[in-house]
Write a structure and sequence with these properties.
The protein is of the alpha+beta class. The protein has one domain: 2-Layer Sandwich (Alpha-Beta Plaits). The chain is about 30% helix and about 10% strand. It has 5 helices and 4 strands. The chain has a two-stranded antiparallel sheet with strand order 1-4. A two-stranded antiparallel ribbon has the order 2-3. The radius of gyration is 14 Å and the shape is globular. The N and C termini lie far apart (about 45 Å). The model has no long low-confidence stretch (mean pLDDT about 95). It binds FE3-S4 cluster (2 copies). The site of one FE3-S4 cluster has 14 residues, from loops.
């Protein structure tokens, strides 16, 4: 099993999860962060740390985000060549995302701003 970062992280990237992961297996993309499934030890520390509830055990993902298990896995071997380096320290943030994340609209926060005017 592994934990998975799902859609609420996109364009938020709070990064509180980075401070609590004991094995440093959370890596940064352009619009989201991703958990390396071969390195995650299922310790659960990240799930309550995320303020937007983006992190789930893979077997508890809401149906609408079930494909994020594959999104997180593929980020390391298809989107990038990060692979499994054994920790995110020293791995620079990548300016790319899995295609599912890249395809998401970015207008939500602009809409909120416009409503307040
Ligand atoms: Fe994203 Fe939540 Fe971590 S917003 S960066 S999964 S704390
Ligand atoms: Fe780290 Fe969360 Fe896994 S804290 S070890 S990514 S469950």
């Amino acid at each position: 099993m592994t934990y998975v970062i799902a859609e609420p992280c996109v364009d938020i990237k709070d990064k509180a999860c980075l401070d609590v992961c004991p094995v440093d297996c959370i890596y940064e993309g352009n619009r989201s962060l991703y958990i390396q499934p071969d390195e995650c030890i299922d310790c659960h520390a990240c799930e309550p740390a995320c303020p937007v509830e983006a992190i789930f055990p893979a077997d508890e993902l809401p149906d609408e985000w079930a494909h994020y298990t594959e999104v997180n896995r593929a980020f390391f071997v298809e989107t990038t060549d990060i692979g499994s380096p054994g920790g995110a320290a020293g791995v620079p943030a990548r300016q790319v995302d899995h295609p599912v994340v890249s395809a998401l609209p970015t207008a939500s926060r602009d809409a909120v701003t416009n409503q307040s005017e």
